[in-house]
Specification:
By secondary structure, the chain is an alpha+beta fold. The protein has 25 helices and 31 strands. The protein has a nine-stranded mixed sheet, with helices on both faces.
Length: 748
């Protein structure tokens, strides 16, 4: 504007009569044309072309105009973003390139001579050979770039975004600030995060086409991924939730397969069922449900983000599914596709997850928010149907795995510490929160599956409606007493009476032999079973039917862990009987195994099923898998070589204990053996590492200590250990055992 005003003033001084003509003819062609030429004039070799007339302008005035233009541009560039008004195409900046090779071509790296960096001034980066310049371009410009539609906006250090001078004493220092050039509007922005936000604002406004002539608009920047015969489009940076609206994590494939198997089992019990994916993102999970289970399910995919809803619609059409769009809380639906609603129709809603679960009832609900899911539990259990299933995935592992204990206290109301069984502790924390939320809605739960892996904690529960199941479930929430010396643990006894010495409940006597307080109280936690064997076997069958190879090994481990056995007997035949029962138009296949047979309609039959389930649970209490597990490395003996894990499991089984491996820890052992007997058997079959002249083999116990004897308390175990030390003839073994007795091992 300053340059245009200066040019207009110079023209006015050179031709004063033209101003009068403009005043006389404000709408005429001559005056108007001169005005337009003055505003849009182009300076060429010291002349201003105006109204087809060449008007000579002195060089001094041109220099004055250029200085004014530079001052004005300097004032405008002091802000982070420059407003761009013209719509005509321009050439892109050299910092915007498609490939690193294009950036290297600007520096002519093929020659052996020293070259300057094309994006840095000489005083910042001196001329260097090709190998050093290549590292400089790759590490300082290309790696910190911002990607958009196949182009990289590299960081630029050239003097196109000057910084205000800094006055340090009597010296004035001015430097050129690092900045980015926007590919859409050519704005200069200093910070990378601001640049990403600036590009996102352009995308939200629909401004995705570049105004540069050399930047062709690509057809599509979305990448198509395939999982379980389902195609989904994902946005750039799809695996980073902070940088994309539609988050897709390929590492959660196992989680999606387990949820699919659980839904497939429920679909065999009754059909059709209404299922909800409350946090759709790309819609991959709901699309898998609808594509493979077909008429057995009616899928609803929900997300509160508009971009995610658009992506879900595109993915439905990509998989040849019809879309029924519902974006409001009222029943205003829009059908996308050909004609009426069919079995291949997926309902897509744009609501808050709490709102849609308050408004509608579902048979199957899956919650997978970013972080904790406790904010959505009350809504999930409000309208879920009786004998339905609620599954939730918690990814806030920093708090659940005792890395951020204050966050676990804030979200779950639970006190925890880091233990050897911290993953199972995390699963029991989540189930306790689920139980309390269900009890507030007069509903009880039956835990079908609890999995805690590296990236997530998955819990699948069945809902039992009624105050009696709610009371029974609430009674299973207890506190845990944990010894920090020997890792012994036990749930507190039922009842409200205050005990004089809670340490008496622990099997160990670390409190008596160690100074100070040795135990902590953790919880409240779920104290019931974590697995349902019949449900897991049916999940394994469904995984085999649909070819879910990644889920099958884990499900086999879970079946053995639920039964607490090392014997693996798995059948690929259907666990359902051939006959079907029809009640009120609902077909139910009755399981042939010990799994539950849930009947949906009828109040009396439903109450009978619940009573039978409660009786069966009381009868199978003795067969329930033991709580928690022991890590064999944590209880190893210093200076001794442990036996192989599978051999150690057989030794425990031969001693008369129930034993199995656990998916929570690859070196964990789930057993009902006391910790003292666990250490005794581990000691017996461990060989000294420094026994050079001795033959390799297990350390033999005397005849009065048999491996099948069960130690009821830690004190009795320690008394037997003392007798063993007196009768032992081997000095090496005696010294090792004395050093690693339970008290000293706990102190270590």
């Amino acid at each position: 504007m300053a340059a245009e005003e200066a040019a207009e003033a110079s023209l006015a001084r050179l031709s004063p009569g033209r101003e009068d003509d403009a005043e006389e003819n404000p709408e005429g062609g001559g005056g108007g044309g001169g005005d337009t030429a003055a505003l849009n004039g182009v300076v060429v070799s010291g002349k201003v072309k105006s109204n087809n007339l060449d008007v000579k302008v002195p060089e001094s005035e041109l220099e004055t105009e250029e200085k004014g233009t530079e001052e004005e541009s300097t004032r405008e560039s002091e802000s982070n973003v420059l407003d761009v008004t013209p719509d005509y195409p321009r050439e892109k900046h050299i910092s915007i390139q498609r490939h690193l090779a294009d950036l290297e071509k600007l520096a002519d790296l093929k020659e052996d001579a020293k070259k300057h960096c094309p994006l840095c001034p000489e005083e910042r980066f001196k001329a260097s050979y090709s190998h050093k310049l290549h590292r400089h371009l790759q590490n300082l410009h290309w790696k910190v770039s911002v990607e958009f539609q196949g182009y990289r906006m590299c960081i630029c250090h050239l003097p196109c975004h000057p910084v205000k001078p800094n006055f340090v004493g009597d010296q004035t220092s001015s430097k050129m600030g690092a900045h980015y050039h926007c590919i859409i509007c050519s704005a200069t922005i200093t910070r990378r995060t601001d640049m990403i936000g600036h590009i996102n604002r352009h995308v939200n406004k629909g401004e995705t086409e570049s105004r540069f002539t050399t930047v062709p608009a690509p057809k599509s920047s979305n990448q198509v991924l395939k999982e379980l015969a389902t195609d989904v489009q994902v946005l750039p940076n799809y695996s980073t939730p902070q940088k994309t609206d539609s988050y897709f994590n390929p590492k959660m494939k196992l989680n999606r397969q387990l949820i699919f198997c659980a839904l497939a089992v429920l679909a065999e019990e009754r059909k059709p069922i209404e299922c909800l994916d409350a946090f759709g993102a790309t819609g991959i999970m709901g699309l898998q449900w609808a594509k493979h289970l077909r008429t057995s399910v009616k899928v609803t995919i929900n997300d509160c983000n508009e971009n995610s809803v658009t992506m879900i619609q595109e993915n439905c059409l990509l998989n040849k599914m019809k879309v029924k769009l519902n974006t409001k809380e009222e029943d205003n639906d829009e059908a996308m596709g050909d004609g009426e609603e069919t079995s291949d129709t997926i309902e897509v809603t744009k609501m808050d997850a709490n709102v849609i679960m308050h408004l509608r009832s579902f048979d199957f609900i899956h919650l997978d928010p970013f972080g904790t899911s406790v904010n959505y539990l009350d809504s999930a259990f409000r309208n879920v149907r009786n004998l339905g299933i609620v599954s939730l995935t918690s990814t806030d592992i920093s708090s659940l795995y005792a890395k951020a204990q204050h966050v676990a206290l804030r979200h779950y109301g639970c006190n925890i510490v880091r233990t050897e069984y911290y993953k199972e502790l995390a699963a029991r924390i989540v189930i306790a929160a689920v139980t309390r939320a269900a009890a507030r809605c007069n509903k009880g739960i039956e835990v079908l599956l609890a999995v805690a892996l590296e990236h997530f904690v998955l819990v699948v529960v069945r809902v039992l409606r009624g105050p009696s199941p709610a009371d029974d479930s609430a009674k299973k929430i207890r506190y845990l007493i944990h010894c920090q010396w020997c890792e012994e643990r036990i749930f507190q006894k039922e009842g409200n009476m205050v005990e004089e010495n809670p340490y008496q409940q622990l099997p160990c006597d670390c409190h008596g032999s160690m100074p100070g307080k040795t135990a902590v109280v953790l919880g409240p936690l779920w104290s019931g079973a974590l697995f349902n064997t019949g449900f897991l076997r049916r999940m394994l069958f469904e995984a085999h039917q649909y070819g879910l190879d990644e889920a099958q090994p884990l499900l086999k481990t879970l079946v053995c862990e639920a039964e607490c056995t090392t014997l693996k007997h798995f059948s690929t035949h259907s666990p359902y009987e051939e006959n079907k029962q029809e009640e009120c138009g609902v077909y139910i296949k009755t399981p042939n195994t010990s799994a539950e047979s849930y009947l949906v309609p009828g109040k009396r039959k439903r109450e009978e099923v619940i009573r039978n389930a409660a009786k069966r649970q009381k009868c199978e209490t003795s067969a329930e898998h033991p709580a928690f597990y022991y890590n064999i490395h944590r209880h190893s003996i210093k200076g001794m070589n442990m036996p192989k894990l599978n051999k150690f499991l057989s030794y425990l089984s031969e001693a008369g204990y129930r034993v199995s491996r656990t998916h929570f820890d690859p070196m964990g052992v789930r057993t009902n053996a006391p910790l003292a007997q666990f250490k005794t058997i581990l000691m017996k079959y461990s060989a000294p590492t420094y026994a050079a002249g001795q033959a390799e083999g297990p350390v033999h116990l005397p005849e009065d200590v048999q491996p099948g004897e069960q130690v009821q308390a830690a004190a009795d175990g320690k008394a037997e250990d003392a007798e063993f030390l007196e009768d032992d003839k081997s000095g090496v073994a005696a010294s090792v055992f004395t050093k690693d007795s339970p008290a000293h091992c706990a102190a270590d």
